[in-house]
Amino acid sequence: MAALWMSGWLVQLLVIAVAGREALQQLNVFQLMEMRATVGLFLLYPLIHLGGGLSTMKTQRLPQHVGRALIHYGAQLSWFFALTLIPIGQVVAIEFTMPIWTAILAAMLLGERITVWKVAAIAFGILGVLVIVRPATGAVNPGQLIALGAAVGFGISIALVKFLTRTESALAIVFWMLAVQSIAGLIPTLLVWTWPSPAVWGWVMVIAFCGTFSHFCMARAMLYADATIVVPMDFLRVPLTAIMGWLIYAERLDLLTLLGAALILGSNLLNLKPGVAVSGQPAAPAAARHSAKL
């Protein structure tokens, strides 16, 4: 079930990468994020209505929802901005350090065990980033650093999603994310607002739909597996995004970028392996899964 829900996440994020680049040819990043969140709330409402209405969105954990939504907001802003600076394939390759930060934070916040394989995965992932960014050459692209910052933010956000799923439904997590982000981005959006063309409105609708329901898929997947198992499932997004960039935008990836991406993918595969915890004790099995109502 975790794999099934994560396939929805994978497909929708591939679409967002292309739609985001197209929309950002005319829109400011703040405006795109505000439109995405606002339209997403309207798209989400039918599910809320079927689940019992807005009263079911009440929560005792509002500060955690707000914190998670704002962290994700900053990460998503950075991700979209990086799309305008470096090739799509490179953005996604760097983004795939997210499991590194998720593994560390899941151990700190959720009590998930860090195995020897996960330590190796973290080391390979960091090496992959260094190969892609190549700081020793003195030619680090700001877009690479922005993409790396987005990956860290996404890792924190995913760990917090796992934390929230212990008591909150997937629908509530997505609702509060969109509501908080709509408020957070209102003033910056008003300062840079330009009326979108019909074509851009189409891209915005695609981003809003995929951005909303991809998170719903992620939150549902978290109910069936640990965060450090769920997140690496979408490793296919690296080669698929690189192929899209080549076919649609004629983007080429150099050999060092491909090597770095391979190291990051390898780290994700190591992250999936069970093993002995760093303390020397066998890694604990995943906790009993929660069920959730829409």
Explain what you see.
It is built from 13 helices and no strands. It has one domain (2-271). Helices cover 71% and strands 0% of the residues. The chain has helices spanning 2-23, 29-50, 62-83, 88-95, 98-110, 116-133, 142-164, 170-184, 186-192, 198-221, 227-230, 237-249, 255-271. The model is unreliable at 281-294 (pLDDT under 50). It is globular, with a radius of gyration of 19 Å. The chain is an all-alpha fold and 294 residues long.
Structure keywords:
disordered C terminus, globular, 294 residues, mainly alpha
Mean pLDDT: 81
Query: Which class do the helix and strand fractions yield?
Result: mainly alpha
* Tally of separate helices: 13
The share of residues in helices is: over 70%
If you compute it from the alpha carbons, what radius of gyration comes out, rounded to the nearest whole angstrom?
19 Å
Number of E-state strands:
0
Largest sheet, described in full? Answer: none
| Secondary-structure element order, N to C | HHHHHHHHHHHHH
Count the domains: 1
Could you name the ranges where pLDDT drops below 50 across 5 or more consecutive residues?
281-294
Q: Strand share of the residues?
A: under 5%
Overall geometric form: globular
N-to-C span: 16 Å
